[in-house]
Amino acid sequence: MNTSDFFYDLPKELIAQTPVEPRDSSRLLVLGRNSGEIEHKHFYDIIDYLEEGDCLIANDSRVIPARIFGTKAETGANVEFLLLKQISGNKWETLCKPGKKAKVGTKFNFGNGIMSGEIIEVKDDGNRIVDFDCGENFFATLDKIGQMPLPPYITEKLKDKERYQTVYSNELGSAAAPTAGLHFTTELMDKIKAKGVNIAYVTLHVGLGTFRPVKVDDVTKHKMHSEHYEIPQETADIIKETKAKCKRVIAVGTTSCRTLESVATQFGEIKACDGWTDIFIYPGYEFKVLDGLITNFHLPESTLIMLVSAFAGFDNIMNAYKTAVDEKYRFFSFGDAMAIV
Question: Is the CATH number of domain 67-145 2.40.10.240?
């Protein structure tokens, strides 16, 4: 398939700039995975599509305030740093603007000197490896000096940083939110549990590669970025029990989906483990774990719209997206949701 096959025309005014309140009042397009039938609901109606014994798998990664601004120690020149992923300790892969001011050996100060950093490597793709140094916990320092790394298509300022976190976020490390989970409220999750639906968690730290466009014409030639994941024993046990009872495993978001399918592909089963995944799911992929998917509306020609097309069928997804545009759904990170069941 060609990347251009996944293009759709999206009016700019449909790109959501701010989240709705309350979280679960966003709209929900329900798509029949096999039938292609479409229903229009609100997110709080998701409970009607879940059955006792099903399990929801959600990504509990928490977004770090990954955008920080440094001054060059020698000249005072300003450089913006975007933390992409933790390499080890306080060493991070970062995106720097302007990159020409961030050469190997260059030192920077952050937050009026409460943190410093040195460029120790320039990667082939232009990203920098930075070794940071601060007097306290690195994440505590970030919380003082960093800004939320909202996607480039969001131009409105976020008033409450917690609105770019899921209510169940717990494990620090993402450069972008697992946005399908933004629609859940604590109250809705309590109602879902009361119905006899299990909710379990995986961790996948979302990198900004999520937003990078596919630059090759032939989809199969695209190389995915790598992200770190973890599946705890409790989650592995719940998934196995759910499958043994012939109930459904439903992923909240493409990140949860990629975690489950990565592990099942590598080991032939779901097991407690952690590692790095660069799995690329596009039409033709055979799903090994997933029975349902809750997701947002994704960018044209992105790896994410390719993933949902693999799950629900190319024609079903492209028709659903056309319908969502016609019905003026809100798109992308702060937009409305889709449930594929």
Answer: yes
